[in-house]
TrEMBL record:
<dbReference type="GO" id="GO:0046872">
    <property type="term" value="F:metal ion binding"/>
</dbReference>
<dbReference type="Pfam" id="PF07687">
    <property type="entry name" value="M20_dimer"/>
</dbReference>
<dbReference type="GO" id="GO:0006508">
    <property type="term" value="P:proteolysis"/>
</dbReference>
<dbReference type="InterPro" id="IPR002933">
    <property type="entry name" value="Peptidase_M20"/>
</dbReference>
<protein>
    <submittedName>
        <fullName>Deacylase</fullName>
    </submittedName>
</protein>
<keyword id="KW-0645">Protease</keyword>
<dbReference type="InterPro" id="IPR011650">
    <property type="entry name" value="Peptidase_M20_dimer"/>
</dbReference>
<keyword id="KW-0378">Hydrolase</keyword>
<keyword id="KW-0479">Metal-binding</keyword>
<dbReference type="GO" id="GO:0008233">
    <property type="term" value="F:peptidase activity"/>
</dbReference>
<dbReference type="InterPro" id="IPR051458">
    <property type="entry name" value="Cyt/Met_Dipeptidase"/>
</dbReference>
<dbReference type="Pfam" id="PF01546">
    <property type="entry name" value="Peptidase_M20"/>
</dbReference>
C-alpha cells in the first residue's frame, strides 16, 4: 500500500500544518464587505505554489479565482477540487469568546472565522497534495483546483467563470469539502444540493406612518397585506399552493430511497443539537424532508415599531424576506415566474425582488465514481461512510453537473457543530487532520481506478461521469 506513511507523516507534521492553516485564517477575506479578499487570494496562491501546484489568479467581474493544477501527461484521469477562500462577516463581535480572526485552540477545536467554512477544509486538500507527494513521490492522477472568493456572496460570478473556462476546467470528477459532517461523526458523502431562490417582498400602505387610532380602518396596514398574500401561498399542512410549484420534481430512485433509509438517525440527539427537542418524525421522513423536498421559508419580517414600549402606529411599509429551497429538476427561473404570477393575481401592489438563486444539482448514486470514493472514505476512516443523496443547503454545484456535465461529490471535513456563519465558528483539529488523510486516500483510489481501466484499454466516461 503506497499510503502506509501518510498517517505517520500527518501526525509528525501536525504543528506545521496547523500553523499553515492559522496563517490563512488570520488573513481576513470577507466577500460581502470586500475586506482582505485580494490579499487572501495572493496568500493562498503563494501557499499552493510552495507545495508545487502551478497556481495563478484568474480575474472575474468580482473577486478573483485561485486556480491551480498539477498535470502529468502520463495520467488520463483528472480530479477537479473546488472550495472557497471567502468568509462571512464576524458579527456579532461581542458573542465571540476569542477574537474572530485570531485562531485559538480550546478543547481540541480551532476557533476562528473561516475555520470550518471553508479555509480549514480547503487547506486539507492543499496539504493532502503536499503529503501525498512527499510520501509517495508523484500523483497517480491529474488535479485541478478552483478556489473562489464569492461563495458567501452567492457565487455570482462562478457560473460565468466556468462557462468561459470549460477547456481549462476539463476533468472527470469534481470533489469538494464544505459544510458539516453527520451528527453521528461517521464520514459523510453528499451527492447533490438543493437549489435556492431568495426573494424580498415589499408592501406599501400610506406615504408615512400614521396614528393607529386617528387613521385606523382608513389607512391600510401593509403587514396585513403580506399576511393575506402568504395565506394564499401555503396551506396548514405546509403544502405550497402556487400553481405549478411541484412540477418537474424528479421522483426518488430506488437506490436513493434505500440510501435515505440507511442513514443513522437519533431523534432525541438531533433534536437537542438543532435546538428543537420537540422533533417528532422517523429517520426516513427526516432525511427526505431535509434533502429531497422543496421548502417555503420566511427568513424575516420588518415593519413598524419593534422596540421596547408602545408606539401605536399604522406602518407605512412592510418587508419580508424568504428563501425557497428547490430540488431536481425545479428551476429557480421557473419558480420565480410562477411566484410573481401568483402575487400579481392576489396582491398586485406588492413588489417582488429577486435577491439571488442557486440551481439544484444531483449526481447519480449508481456511478462508478461514487463506489470508488466510498471505498476511499471507508479505508481512510476505517468506518462505513454515510451516503446522502443531497445536502439540505445550497451550493453552486450545478456549475459542475450542468455546465461541465461532470459528476460531483461533496465530502464535508468539518465537525457537525462547527458553528459556521455564527460566532465561535470552529473546526476540530482531528477533523482537519483526517481531512488531509481522506483526500490522500481519494487520490490513491482514483489512481488505482485509472490503472484498472488502463488495463482494459479505455477510460469509460460519459456525460454523467465514470461508468
Amino acid at each position: 500500500m503506497t499510503l502506509k506513511n501518510v498517517s505517520a507523516m500527518i501526525k509528525e507534521r501536525k504543528e506545521e500544518y496547523l500553523n499553515q492553516l492559522f496563517t490563512l485564517l488570520r488573513q481576513k477575506s470577507i466577500s460581502a464587505q470586500n475586506i482582505g479578499i485580494r490579499d487572501c487570494a495572493v496568500l493562498l496562491k503563494g501557499m499552493m505554489n510552495e507545495v508545487g501546484i502551478d497556481t495563478r489568479l484568474i480575474e472575474t467581474d468580482g473577486h478573483p479565482v485561485v486556480y491551480g493544477e498539477l498535470m502529468n501527461s502520463k495520467n488520463n484521469f483528472t480530479l477537479l477540487i473546488y472550495g472557497h477562500y471567502d468568509v462571512q462577516p464576524p458579527d456579532p463581535l461581542d458573542e465571540w469568546v476569542s477574537p474572530p480572526f485570531e485562531p485559538t485552540v480550546r478543547e481540541g477545536k480551532i476557533y476562528c472565522r473561516g475555520a470550518g467554512d471553508n479555509k480549514g477544509q480547503l487547506m486539507a486538500h492543499v496539504l493532502a497534495v503536499k503529503t501525498y507527494l512527499d510520501a509517495v513521490g508523484e500523483l497517480p492522477i491529474n488535479i485541478k483546483f478552483v478556489f473562489e472568493g464569492e461563495e458567501e456572496n452567492g457565487s455570482v460570478n462562478l457560473p460565468s467563470f466556468v462557462e468561459e473556462n470549460k477547456e481549462l476546467l476539463k476533468a472527470d470528477l469534481v470533489y469538494s469539502s464544505d459544510g458539516s459532517s453527520h451528527e453521528s461523526d461517521a464520514p459523510l458523502m453528499l451527492l447533490g444540493v438543493r437549489g435556492m431562490l431568495y426573494l424580498e417582498l415589499t408592501a406599501k400602505g400610506g406615504e408615512w406612518d400614521n396614528h393607529s387610532g386617528n387613521k385606523g380602518n382608513i389607512v391600510p396596514n401593509p403587514v396585513w397585506k403580506l399576511f393575506d398574500l402568504l395565506s394564499t401561498m401555503r396551506d396548514s399542512s405546509g403544502r405550497v399552493l402556487i400553481e405549478g410549484f411541484y412540477d418537474n420534481i424528479l421522483p426518488l430512485s430506488p437506490k436513493e430511497t434505500e440510501l435515505l433509509k440507511s442513514i443513522p438517525y437519533n431523534q432525541e440527539e438531533i433534536g437537542k443539537k438543532i435546538g428543537y427537542p420537540d422533533l417528532k418524525m422517523d429517520g426516513e421522513t427526516y432525511y427526505r424532508k431535509l434533502t429531497m423536498e422543496p421548502t417555503f421559508n420566511i427568513c424575516g419580517i420588518h415593519s413598524g415599531h419593534i422596540g421596547e414600549g408602545a408606539k401605536t402606529i399604522i406602518p407605512s411599509k412592510a418587508t419580508l424576506k424568504m428563501d425557497i429551497r428547490l430540488v431536481v429538476d425545479q428551476s429557480p427561473d421557473d419558480i420565480y415566474k410562477k411566484f410573481c404570477t401568483h402575487v400579481k393575481k392576489y396582491a398586485p401592489d406588492i413588489n417582488v425582488k429577486r435577491i439571488g438563486s442557486f440551481k439544484p444539482s444531483r449526481t447519480s448514486a449508481e456511478l462508478k465514481c461514487v463506489e470508488v470514493v466510498t471505498e476511499a472514505l471507508r479505508e481512510a476512516y476505517n468506518e462505513e461512510p454515510i451516503i446522502q443523496p443531497s445536502l439540505g443547503g445550497s451550493l453552486p454545484d450545478h456549475v459542475w453537473t450542468e455546465v461541465l456535465q461532470l459528476p460531483s461529490i461533496l465530502v464535508p471535513y468539518a465537525n457537525f457543530d462547527q458553528g459556521n456563519h455564527s460566532p465561535n465558528e470552529n473546526i476540530e483539529i482531528d477533523y482537519f487532520l483526517n481531512g488531509i488523510k481522506c483526500t490522500c486516500y481519494v487520490i490513491q483510489k482514483l489512481g488505482d481506478y485509472e490503472k484498472d481501466i488502463k488495463k482494459e484499454g479505455t477510460i469509460s466516461i460519459d456525460k454523467g461521469g465514470m461508468l
